[in-house]
Amino acid sequence: MNQKVNAAPGFAQLFTPKLITVLREGYGAAQLRADAVAGLTVAIVALPLSMAIAIASGGTPAQGLYTAIVGGFLVSLLGGSRYQVGGPAGAFIVLIAGIAAQHGMSGLILATFMSGMMLLAIGLLRLGTFIKFIPFPVTVGFTAGIAVIIFTSQLKEIFGLALENEPGALIEKIPALWQVRDTVTPAAMGVALGTIAVIVGLKRLRPHWPGMLIAVALAAIFIAVTGANVATIGSQFGGIPSTLPAPALPEFSPDKVKALLPGAMSLTLLGAIESLLSAVVADGMTGRRHRSNCELVAQGVANMGSALFGGICVTGTIARTATNVRSGAHGPVAGMLHSVFLLGFMLVAAPLASYIPLAALAGVLAVVAWNMIEKPAIAILLRSGWGETAVLAVTFLLTIFRDLTEAIVVGLALGSVLFIQRMSQAVGVEALVGADLADSDQPRADQPQVRDVMVYRISGALFFGATASIGSVLDRIQDGLQVLVVDFSAVPFLDSTGANMIEGLAHKAQRRGIDLWLTGASRDIRRVLLRHGLRRPLAHYAPTVEEALRRHNRP
């Protein structure tokens, strides 16, 4: 009985959440204990980070917690990765701040909801595989560019500068900050630098301790004891609420949706890339495999859920996901518990958050920005050649000085052109005339007459990028030929441009009375050739060059 081996996976296989898979495997007290420890560890990391990212994005610290609680819970509940932890991410700061500045907080919440709908659609349409086709230099370049923007956005709080309307663009921001350099607050600068020093020091001396939380807590204690004149969450935002708000749909109107569409698409693109990269990192650390389309569906639902509670964009975060894995998480329950622990913090310790200085959160983001820059990867790419260096540099500079979406699109286009150029150089053609064939190691018995034969052996993918160079060789048909053989045995792929070139060669051979034989073509390649009209009498097919010559010489 024939069995279908390469059947396409069904809907259930693609979209069953990993939580269901883990529960089916068996889940008991030991697994719950491991997930609880990991969830608490991740919550300790996520607590200061979520508030800091929300503030840097133009929101409130409460919005960062709403995002981590609601969005993070839904990502783990519905996601296609065992270990993915969702929440607000530093990579979104630039986009979110720009949307909030242009359309207000209500516009940002609507854009987040729209982005969730788009991510849901991308996942259901099974386009997650294509999202991962982003060249490595592009991801490294835009991540480094975002890191630079995040760091410069925190300079005001790090130095305690008095600047009312801080420009968003980097070129305008630096001169504006320089003009108010006389307003530096030594206490704020001391708190920020002290926070950075504690985080870096604990990472070296006690790497398993929650350095960010300890640093922020020490800064808050310092402010509470000394009463230093430094802006805090309490003085800036009035503290954080102790409960989640009631869910509500974002303000909606056709004109608003139209205006927010470009921003929502940017959030969707970055969210898909960031979440799938994070899932891939988790796979590499654990040997597991995530379900990319299921993960995008979960990200979509999580973003819509976050928007309903007034939160900002949600995505899978590499730092929190890696922390989850290292802490011994067993499955998605750890990510769900991380959200529960954050909710518990809001219910119990919300008043204490009022003492947290903004300079300390700025110090946290400064460390995050430094860690975002993939220094070893940049060094490797700079040594890899001019192509990778150009893609990296262009993406990095466009991210800083233009727009993140433009940087990704241009970087992807440049990387694609580089790939096409290299692939075209990898395609070769070898021409064998009659004398070359006669001198080959073929058996002498039944040897066909080859004096009037030319054979072209093509190697590599014959696609639009290689047709110009290959076509110029194939067109050199010598006078007096009777047989022209084009061997495809070393061609793994043929596109319509390459087939069109072979069709032109066939018509040229037909006009000159030359028999064209196409040999070694796989079933897929032969299908493309036939689709372009390459059939008898225009062309003949044979499995090998030798068989083609025998058939031609057969009386």
From TrEMBL:
> Which key words are in the record?
Membrane, Transmembrane, Transmembrane helix
The protein's topology relative to the membrane is:
Multi-pass membrane protein
Q: What is its main location?
A: membrane
Q: Which InterPro entries match?
A: SLC26A/SulP_dom, SLC26A/SulP_fam, STAS_dom, STAS_dom_sf
* Localization of this protein: Membrane
Q: Where are the transmembrane segments?
A: 36-56, 62-78, 85-102, 108-127, 134-155, 184-202, 214-239, 259-282, 355-373, 380-401
Q: Name one GO biological process term.
A: transmembrane transport
Which part of the chain is the STAS domain?
443-552
Q: Supply one GO CC term from the record.
A: membrane
Q: Which Pfam families does the entry mention?
A: STAS, Sulfate_transp
What this protein is called in its record is Sodium-independent anion transporter
| Source organism | Paracoccus kondratievae
